[in-house]
Every structure is written in structure tokens, then in C-alpha cells.
Write a structure and sequence with these properties.
This protein is mostly helical. Helices cover 60% and strands 0% of the residues. It has ten helices and no strands. It starts with 19 loop residues before the first helix and ends with a helix.
Length: 239
């Protein structure tokens, strides 16, 4: 169904205002407001004023609805044609845009494991892998590089979203208080944590002066860059 093999349009039952696309759109709106736990076939049907059975005419169940929600929320990968024609700026932009998707739809982070990959999700993977064309990396290395970036982005969302039920964003004040509390623990038990104590002398646990997310992105891309240089050197040596 994600790839166009949808059920034939129901000949009976409610038609006005109800379609697979509209059902998915409303389900995403509910998840954005209240989290993934608020999404159920019954709840989404109630948003339209229809019975739960009405939705089953369009989707087999909640699992399929969530698959559609993920692919709909992530949308088609934006074109990177306007970005400098080099792997690094393209991957930087790709990562920032994907970060934006997760910030707009934090419920996507709640999913323990991804379901079937839809066309929109695959378009993001295509764009990232294409950015690494001509780098000398193997196909497996390109995928591993993209997965490393994706893992980094998920860690950003983990840091910025509370694990509490309301999923309130963690503010800078909260982060600063956390650093202060941990710093005090390290000072109190300095004999047990010498490395952390030493790190504190150069700013550990103090309010961040820069963007931690950009720092992490730079480190991952630096690592990919080292591997690309190694591949280029090996290719020259074997020429």
C-alpha cells in the first residue's frame, strides 16, 4: 500500500472527507499534538465523526497507519541540487533538514523499530547515498556513513525531548542545572572521578558556548572524510 498498491476505493460506507491521505494527515496532526500513544483507529475515526470500522475500509490496522504516518511526515527528500557540488556540504544540509523533520514530528523517535520503508523514506536514503558518489567509498561504507549520521540525529532528538509523559523539550536552564548538579557531584567525590574532575578545568559541565549538535555533526563528517582520503590514497597507490 505504501508503494501505490492501495485497496480499491470502497463502494460503500462514508466517502465525504475520508480517504487514506486524509486519515494519515489527521493521524499525524494528533501525534504531533499528543504523542504517538494518542493515535488509535478509534481516535482517528472520532476526529472525522465516523465509526472505527470506517477506517478499516482504507487501512488494515494501526500498524499500517503508522507506516503511512512515518512516510507522510518525513515527506520526499528535498533536492540538494542547490548545495555545493561536494559530498560534505550536501551531507551537512541533508542532516540539518532531517533534523528539522524530527523536531517537527518528535513522535517518530518513540518508535522502537522502523516498519516497512516507504517511497519518501527511501528518497532520503537515496539523496544521502548519492551525495557520497565519487568518494571512493564502497556501497556498504556509504550506507554505514548515512546510518551513523541518522544515529547522530536521533541522539539530538533524545537530548532535546524529555522522556516524561508530556515530552516537554529540555530547556537551556534545565541543561545548565543538570551540569551544575553533576559538577558538584564530581567535586564532592573527586577521588573517584579524576578524569571528569580534570575535564572540569577546561569547561566540562559549564553552559555550552557553541552548538553541540553542530559539533557532533562536524566530528562525524570529519571521520567520514578521513575514510574518503584513505580510499583516495589507496587508489593512487594501486594506479
Amino acid at each position: 500500500m505504501l508503494w501505490g498498491g492501495e485497496r480499491e476505493r470502497p463502494s460503500r460506507g462514508p466517502k465525504p472527507g475520508l480517504s487514506t491521505a486524509r486519515i494519515v494527515e489527521v493521524a499525524i496532526e494528533v501525534a504531533d499534538r499528543e504523542g504517538l500513544s494518542a493515535v488509535s483507529m478509534q481516535r482517528i475515526a472520532s476526529e472525522f465523526g465516523f465509526t472505527t470500522m470506517s477506517l478499516y475500509r482504507y487501512l488494515p490496522g494501526k500498524a499500517q497507519l503508522i507506516d503511512f504516518m512515518i512516510d507522510g511526515a518525513i515527506d520526499v527528500s528535498p533536492s540538494l541540487d542547490d548545495v555545493a557540488d561536494d559530498w560534505r556540504p550536501k551531507l551537512e544540509e541533508w542532516a540539518r533538514r532531517l533534523r528539522g523533520v524530527y523536531h517537527r514530528h518528535p513522535w517518530m523517535f518513540e518508535l522502537a523499530a522502523p516498519g516497512p520503508m516507504g517511497p519518501n523514506q527511501l528518497s532520503w536514503l537515496e539523496a544521502a547515498v548519492d551525495s557520497l558518489s565519487g568518494t571512493g567509498l564502497t556501497g556498504a561504507e556509504k550506507l554505514d556513513a548515512v546510518f551513523a549520521l541518522t544515529g547522530l540525529i536521533r541522539s539530538w532528538i533524545y537530548r532535546s525531548v524529555s522522556k516524561e509523559e508530556e515530552q516537554q523539550p529540555i530547556t537551556s536552564d534545565m541543561a545548565e542545572q543538570w551540569g551544575s548538579d553533576v559538577g558538584e557531584l564530581v567535586r564532592t567525590h573527586r577521588d573517584r572521578y579524576p578524569a571528569l574532575l580534570a575535564a572540569m578545568s577546561s569547561g566540562a559541565f559549564e553552559p555550552a558556548e557553541g552548538d553541540g549538535e553542530e559539533f557532533g555533526l562536524r566530528c562525524v563528517l570529519d571521520g567520514i572524510g578521513v575514510l574518503i582520503k584513505e580510499r583516495a590514497a589507496a587508489a593512487r597507490a594501486n594506479a
